[in-house]
Amino acid sequence: MSTMAYVALGANLNEPVQQIQHAVLALKSLAIDSIITVSPLYRSVPMGDVEQPDFVNGVAQFNTDLEPLALLNALQEIENAQGRVREVRWGPRTLDLDILLYEQQVIEEPRLTIPHYGMKQRSFVLIPLADINPQLILPCKTELKSLITREMRAELIQI
Ligand code: ROI
Question: How far, in Å, CA of 100 to CA of 78, rounded?
């Protein structure tokens, strides 16, 4: 049985747009029939107190056979293959791939929280997610659209 997953894409080092494009090719290998939908990409100001370059963000959606932890492992392999080094917390990164949603499942495990813990507050996640699926309802029954404010829209520049 396959499951629909949404994955957040983020990068702010070493040609971030190319990092994301490269990651999308790698994600195809995790998707059933290599079919993946990618949102428009956005430039966003870094969230958090660390001074660092602007981010490029987007969201990918695909059906996969991988269980959540196997998907997490596969995403970390892609991050590592693109030179991600886990250093500063909330610091810059060549590539960040976070599972946002795994169909309507709620998962709380030491390595993995789904839905992603910060997604409801992050313009750079909510807006590309709504580009792909404007009707999306989150597992908590909240309508995605209801979480997106005017201020959030003003934060992002589509690339
Ligand atoms: N800020 C933005 N704008 N985009 C991100 O993807 C992002 N990722 C992070 C931190 C450093 C918290 N800030 C971010 O991990």
Answer: 17
Choosing from 43, 54, 65, 84, which is the catalytic residue?
Answer: 84
CB contact at 8 A, 43 and 54: yes
In sequence order, the β-bridge partners of residue 101 are 6
Concerning whether 84 is annotated as a catalytic residue, the answer is yes
Task: Name every protein residue with a CB atom under 6 angstroms from any ligand 1 atom.
Answer: 10, 44-48, 55, 57, 90, 96, 124
Give the amino acid at 115: P
pTM: 0.96
Q: Rounded to whole angstroms, how far apart are CA atoms 128 and 136? A: 12
Element housing 26 (H / E): helix 16-28
CA distance 57 to 37: 14
CATH of domain 3-158: 3.30.70.560
3-state secondary structure 92-105: CCCCEEEEEEECCC
pLDDT value at position 42? 98
Residue 133, both tokens: 């699926």
Q: Residue 91 pLDDT more than 90?
A: no
Q: Is the dihedral of CA 116, 120, 123, 126 positive or negative?
A: positive
